[in-house]
Design a protein that fits this description.
single chain, alpha+beta, Rossmann fold, Topoisomerase I, domain 2, Topoisomerase I, domain 3, six-stranded antiparallel beta barrel, four-stranded parallel β-sheet, 25 helices
């Protein structure tokens, strides 16, 4: 007997829904999108390869018709879904109720072409009640949502595939541009520019401890001789005193004058001010605020937060996690209020439910806020028993925030006491919490540590006006203005959302992209832009300003919202963006001839004492310093704001001195040099006599942990002696060789190899040490390249996470999953939390499948080799220079990446076309149903 077929996006979601539907329905997963635009030339059908628009995957001359294909890795799943549909009595499309989910459902219809009744199921949480309600009231596919998502996809494709080649030609290869990505990079660069322009200023204050009959009071100097004393708030982001700040800036001499004048004198409590305060709880989580709070409180990246939230949603623990809404449903309000009454008491329950409104630009209110699912919230203890550590922690965060948002206000009293001593006034501020209210459940995090300290309770002694106090200790303290804090993932997400740029559901993938592309690296939690990011941002700001204009990007979001509501035509929106004199195509053509690569890739640092300019140049192999005829590499972990003129001169001086002669090798009578190259310091025996010869003098890199200043002639000769024979194996008599390989130090005996742990050195390794290492079981290649340093246990898998050195630098592994440390991070400072986050970010990452390559099983079943005459013509083969664009997780609305640059310049030139018609009067668009894959 045939049953209805229900299709969702993910296997985890399918398993959860299957529990509720039992045997009445068959539930299958599409595993994300089943169709998309081609990711590389190999995926373009032969019939379309010669079309001038084929590279874009969008026919820009014919109503922006997209070219959709089913990727090789999805063909087996599509076949499975077709087979399931053949026996189905009806088709229910139960993908997420947002633009992405609606688009997935539309693509499923286009590919599967069902001949049975089709229904669209929508629900905000995966519970039995929600599923039954959705089945009782299915709806039709929303074509407007589909068009909005398709328009976004095409805009992002045109932006990425047209702008990226310009960056390859003018800056360096393998860069990418994106509608939201490039704006996010600009935000990070602008913050770094503020830090570079910042000039530190110094001011002093005086603190005193005053004692009276009622206790001790610590206060800070407020005024001196009637003038208010400057504090950090009186200085701007550049470190300068604000023009309207009528304050006295104390220096050391002035602070010492105050101390001498006040020391040993009694004072009076001249004023006591008390006023009540009320704090209200933060609204329930949206996608953006969940990412921000997970970053602040759990130290997670946006990507990790969204991955864990996805699992919680798919397993029925929380409502849909991609939402801009702060609204809670009636059943959620009832559940929260009932829980508050039972667990906290009636005093913590407001008279009526709280209602929140979203204040961000372009908010989409289609869903509820993120909350625990169901008509009653499962407890935190239950989550800790049934979920893994990450899922339980995030669920607890969501549970507390949801409950707290419906609790009573926190109330208390603010107290300010002023102490008058001679010509000085000191002040102390306190805070007393009289009723905790929502604080019993949850307190929102802050991006400002000082704000968090100010939010804490501080109880002052019960002094009264007129009380006499004596100064026990007076201390003059210097303070230095601090540059604006760098953006973190949390503050970048907050900034993007506040400006209405992009959608919160895409922020995680945007941040991941700018990290992977080398535009940004991390120092702790701070996002630091690279000099490549400076060059790209400079190019776009000077020659394609509108593309990185914050208002333009926000207006594009508004237009997409209008398409989703059926108030804007998709083709007209695309034509305005791409065609005509104000469109992307023509503006790119005009900018191409105006951009001077040398100018956009040069960043001035300043001038030296001789008046010679010192510049940072971004070259093909990365940034370097240039001053006159001198050039020097820039350390990869050096932040732009840390590269002062003095630092630049020191780097140039090191390079100017050239190789350092350590001494003469007694065996060869050649000089031994200590040199510095692109990949760090190394030692070399002899000089290069003929640069044209391919043979190079013996060289050896420094071992892990070695410092340049420690290298002498003996140590250099020891490094150059590698690989060295340690001894013979006592059983096989085979030589044991110690060497430093691309995966770190190791020993080799016959076919057996073992990594050398950090506590042993291959320079002093003995035969006995080597034999003991060979007795230990071998580890698989790639899982362990050295013994490594244990970081700690993974609470999820209970496997030990180890830090190791690999071919591409340091990485962490739990024996199953490897994760490379981000560029610029310090392995020595790596914490267990950071290691776990890196492992989580790699778990479940999609496997890379080369376009056109069949899976192993398909190869085994392939027919016999065809005759030579039937081979594909050479002209149709994939060009060597066209590399596969990296696939992004389908569940997250990811930015489009451009294809890799072709070798020939002609491959990147746009075809000349006649002037486009006015965007306001486009040709009639074909009906959606007539589109072909």
């Amino acid at each position: 007997m045939s049953v209805p077929l229900v299709i969702v996006e993910s296997p985890a979601k399918a398993r959860t829904i299957e529990k509720f539907l039992g045997g009445r329905y068959r539930v299958e997963a599409s595993i994300g999108h089943v169709r998309d635009l081609p990711r590389s030339a190999a995926e373009i059908p032969l019939t379309k390869k010669k079309e001038p628009w084929a590279r874009l995957g969008v026919n820009v001359e014919q109503h922006f018709e997209p070219l959709y294909i089913v990727p090789n890795e999805k063909k087996a799943q599509v076949a499975k879904l077709k087979e399931a549909l053949a026996d189905a009595s009806a088709l229910y499309l139960a993908t997420d109720e947002d633009r992405e989910g609606e688009s997935i459902s539309w693509h499923l219809l286009e590919v599967l072409k069902p001949k049975v009744p089709v229904h669209r199921l929508v629900f905000h949480e995966i519970t039995r009640e929600a599923i039954d309600k959705a089945l009782a009231k299915p709806r039709k596919l929303d074509e407007n949502l589909v068009r909005a998502q398709e328009t976004r996809r095409i805009v992002d494709r045109l932006f990425g595939y047209e702008v990226s080649p310009l960056l390859w030609r003018k800056v360096k290869p393998q860069l990418s541009a994106g509608r939201v990505q490039s704006v996010a990079v600009r935000l990070v660069v602008e913050r770094e520019r503020q830090r570079m322009a910042f000039r530190s200023a110094m001011w002093w204050d005086v603190t005193g401890v005053f004692t009276g009959d009622r206790g001790k009071l610590e206060a800070t100097l407020l005024t001196w001789a009637g003038q208010r004393i400057a504090t950090g708030k009186d200085f701007d982001d550049l470190g300068k005193l604000r023009e309207k700040a009528a304050v006295l800036v104390l220096d050391k001499a002035g602070a010492d004058t105050v101390v001498r004048a006040v020391a040993g004198k009694s004072g009076t409590i001249s004023q006591v001010e008390e006023k009540p305060y009320t704090d209200r709880p933060a609204p329930p989580f949206t996608t953006s605020t969940l990412q921000q709070e997970a970053n602040r409180k759990l130290r997670w990246t946006s990507k990790r937060a969204m991955q864990v939230a996805q699992k919680l949603y798919e397993t029925g623990w929380i409502t849909y996690m991609r939402t801009d809404s702060t609204t809670l449903s009636e059943e959620a309000l009832a559940a929260a209020r009932s829980l508050i009454r039972d667990q906290y008491g009636a005093d913590y329950l407001p008279a009526k439910p709280r209602v929140y409104t979203t204040k961000v630009k372009n908010a989409q209110e289609a869903h509820e806020a993120i909350r625990p699912s169901g008509t009653s919230f499962r407890g935190i203890e239950e989550a800790e028993r049934q979920l893994d550590a990450d899922e339980a922690r995030l669920y607890a965060l969501i549970w507390k925030r949801t409950v707290a948002c419906q609790m009573a206000d926190s109330r208390g009293k603010l107290v300010a006491m002023t102490v008058a001593v001679d010509k000085a006034e000191f002040q102390a501020r306190g805070k007393t919490i009289e009723f905790a209210g929502f604080r019993r459940a949850y307190v929102e995090g802050s991006d400002n540590p000082e704000a968090e300290l100010a939010d804490q309770e501080r109880i002052l002694p019960s002094f009264r006006k007129g009380d006499t106090v004596s100064g026990e200790a007076l201390t003059a303290r210097p303070h230095e203005t601090q540059p604006p804090a760098r953006l973190t993932e949390a503050t970048l997400v907050k900034e993007l959302e506040a400006r209405g740029i992009g959608r919160p559901s895409t922020y995680a993938s945007i941040i991941e992209t700018i990290l992977q592309r080398g535009y940004v690296f991390k120092k702790g939690t701070a996002l630091v832009p690279t000099f490549t990011a400076f060059a790209v941002t400079k190019l776009l700001e000077q020659h394609l300003t509108w593309l990185v204009d914050y208002d333009f990007t926000a207006r594009m979001e508004e237009q997409l919202d209008e398409v989703a509501l059926g108030k804007e035509d998709s083709e007209r929106c695309l034509a305005r963006f791409y065609l005509g004199g104000a469109g992307l195509r023509e503006r790119l053509g005009n900018a191409d001839g105006q951009i001077d690569p040398r100018e956009v890739c040069t960043l001035s640092i300043g001038t030296n004492a001789q008046g010679t300019s010192i510049d940072v140049r971004v070259g093909r192999y990365g940034p370097f310093l240039s001053s006159g005829d001198l050039k020097a590499d820039i350390p990869g972990d050096l932040a732009p704001d840390e590269l002062s003129v003095e630092k630049a001169e020191a780097l140039l001086a090191d390079r100017k001195e050239g190789p350092r002669v350590l001494g003469v090798d007694p065996e060869t009578e050649q000089n031994v040099f200590l040199m510095n190259g692109r990949f760090g310091p190394y030692v070399q025996l002899g000089e290069i006599t003929d640069p044209k010869k391919k043979e190079k003098p013996p060289r050896a890199g420094l071992l892990k942990g070695m410092k340049v200043e420690e290298i002498d002639l003996d140590l250099a000769r020891a490094l150059l002696s590698l690989p060295r024979t340690v001894g013979q194996h006592p059983e096989t008599a085979e030589p044991i060789v110690a060497a430093n390989g691309r995966f770190g130090p190791y020993i080799k005996c016959g076919d057996a190899t073992r990594s050398v742990p950090d506590n042993l050195s291959i320079l002093s390794l003995t035969e006995e040490d080597a034999v003991e290492l060979l007795k230990k079981p071998a580890t698989r290649r790639g899982a362990a390249t050295s013994a490594g340093r244990p970081i700690g246990p993974d609470p999820k898998s209970q496997r030990t996470i180890t830090l190791r050195e690999g071919r591409f630098g340091p990485y962490v592994t739990d024996g199953e999953t490897n994760a490379t440390l981000p560029r610029g991070s310090s392995p020595d400072a790596l914490t267990l939390e950071e290691a776990i986050e890196l492992i989580r970010s790699r778990e479940g990452a999609p496997k890379k499948v080369k376009p056109g390559r069949k899976p192993p099983a398909a190869k085994a079943a392939a027919p016999a080799k065809k005759p030579a005459a039937e081979k594909k013509p050479a002209a149709e083969k994939k060009p060597a220079a066209e590399k596969k664009a990296k696939a992004t997780p389908i569940e997250v609305e990811a930015p489009v990446e451009a294809p890799a640059p072709a070798k020939k310049a002609a491959a990147t030139k746009k075809a000349k076309s006649a002037p486009a018609p006015e965007a306001a009067a486009p040709a009639k668009k074909k009906p959606a149903a007539k589109k072909k894959a």
